[in-house]
Design brief:
This protein is mainly alpha-helical and 220 residues long. The protein has 4 helices and 2 strands; from the N terminus they run ββαααα. The longest helix is centred in the middle third of the chain and has 73 residues.
Length: 220
C-alpha cells in the first residue's frame, strides 16, 4: 500500500491534508521474502585477505607518491647546485677581470713614476730614486694583495651539500616514514584479528551455553 498526501487547506494556524491510499506495487509474499532474506558475511580469512590486499595497495600508492616527491626534490637540488655553480663562476670571472685591471693600472702607475723619476747618470741620486721607487712598489703590491684578499673573503659562498648527499637524506627520510607506517598498519591488523577472534569465541561460548541449558532443561 502506498500513501500520497495532498494539501487541501493551509493558513497561519495550520494545514489540512487529504491522504490517498492505493494498492502496493508488489505482492505481500514478495515483500516478506525480501525482508526475510539476509546476505551472510564472508569467511573471516577472506575478509582479512581483502583488508590486507587493500592495505598493500594503499601502501603502494603512498610509495609511488613519495617517489614523485623525491624526484621533485632531486630536480630542485640539481637546479640549486647549478645556480650556485653559475654564481661562483661569475664571481670568479669578475674577480679575475678586476685583478687584471688592477695589475694593468699598477704597471701603468709604476711606469709613469719611473718616467718622472728619470735623472742624469749620477750614482747617488739614481740609487736613492731606485730605493724610493722600490719602496713605493712594495707598498703598492701589499695594498693590492690586501684588497684582493678582502674581496675573496667577501665573495666566499656557503658550502652546499652535494646532489648525492641530498638524495641520500631524502631517501632515508622516506624509508623511516614508510617503516613507521607499515609497523602501525601491522599493529592495527593484529588488533583487529584479536578482536574478531574474541568475538567469535564469545559467540561460540554463548551457543554452547544455550545448548547445555536446553539439554539440562527438563520437560514439564
Amino acid at each position: 500500500m502506498s500513501v500520497s498526501p495532498r494539501t487541501i487547506n493551509e493558513n497561519e494556524y495550520g494545514a489540512a491534508f487529504e491522504l490517498q491510499l492505493s494498492d502496493a506495487k508488489m505482492g505481500k509474499e514478495v515483500i516478506a521474502e525480501k525482508l526475510s532474506k539476509t546476505s551472510p558475511r564472508g569467511p573471516l580469512t577472506e575478509r582479512l585477505q581483502k583488508a590486507d590486499t587493500k592495505r598493500k595497495s594503499l601502501i603502494d600508492e603512498k610509495v609511488v607518491k613519495n617517489r614523485t616527491i623525491v624526484e621533485k626534490a632531486k630536480n630542485l637540488s640539481k637546479m640549486k647546485v647549478t645556480e650556485e655553480s653559475t654564481k661562483v663562476s661569475e664571481t670568479q670571472k669578475k674577480m679575475l677581470e678586476t685583478q687584471a685591471k688592477v695589475e694593468e693600472a699598477r704597471k701603468a702607475k709604476i711606469q709613469e713614476k719611473m718616467e718622472k723619476c728619470k735623472v742624469k747618470e749620477v750614482v747617488k741620486p739614481v740609487k736613492a730614486t731606485e730605493v724610493a721607487i722600490e719602496s713605493k712598489m712594495s707598498k703598492v703590491e701589499e695594498n693590492r694583495k690586501k684588497q684582493i684578499q678582502e674581496k675573496l673573503e667577501k665573495c666566499k659562498v656557503k658550502t652546499v651539500k652535494t646532489k648525492k648527499e641530498l638524495e641520500d637524506e631524502k631517501i632515508q627520510e622516506v624509508e623511516v616514514k614508510l617503516v613507521k607506517k607499515l609497523s602501525n598498519a601491522q599493529l592495527n591488523k593484529d588488533t583487529l584479528q584479536e578482536q574478531e577472534l574474541a568475538r567469535l569465541r564469545e559467540k561460540h561460548e554463548k551457543v554452547e551455553m544455550k545448548k547445555v541449558e536446553k539439554k539440562n532443561k527438563k520437560p514439564e
